[in-house]
Amino acid sequence: MKPGQSARLSNHPLGMESDILESHRIISLEEGSESIAEQLSCMEPWRTLGYTAARLQNYLTSPDPCLRCMAIVAGEADELRLVGVACVRFPWLFGAYLELFAIFPDYQGMGLGTKVLTWLERRVAEKTRNLWIIVSSFNESARAFYRKRGFFEVTKLEDLITVGFDEILLRKNLMHNA
Questions:
Q1: Per-residue pLDDT tens over the stretch 108-139
Q2: Number of domains within the chain
Q3: What confidence tens digit (pLDDT) does each residue in 75-96 have?
Q4: Distance CA 101, CA 72 (A)
Q5: How far is CA 7 from CA 3, 14, 51, 65, in A?
Q6: What is the rounded CA–CA span in Å between residue 108 and residue 103?
Q7: Which domain holds residue 161?
Q8: Are residues 135 and 167 in contact, defined by beta-carbon separation less than 8 angstroms?
Q9: H or E segment to which residue 136 belongs
């Protein structure tokens, strides 16, 4: 561990502990990254942007003291099912950055994304005032999801991830929720 690294880890708004969210739990991503990466590579926007399962798994497992990757699971301890994933970078632009957020298709439309995002906002608001997200401009459902939850579009980032596709930077001021 490098000098100062432990201070960053302890300052991250999302500790390594698990958290219970009604019938789901949010736990540190320690295993299951291969399954998550496979599912993400078949979902939007990752499929359109050309992300492979190997590239996503590398992201999910690369050591980074400022990044927390969490699995969203359902079920009992002996039969947990992966239902989604969230990765949060902190610090980032006077706030936290939700770098990756997905609820797997079989679990979408049940309000779980809203519940996880609300939980995340409460945790992040304890440490900072901003929550940032970047969405692909073609991903209208994600843009509508975040807009409905109080995020506003800050700017368009042309060709950020893949040439020919723009990304949209969104921000939510968490101080307005207090």
A1: 998 999 999 999 999 898 889 999 999 999 99
A2: 1
A3: 776 677 889 999 999 988 889 9
A4: 10
A5: 9, 13, 33, 10
A6: 6
A7: 5-177
A8: yes
A9: strand 130-136
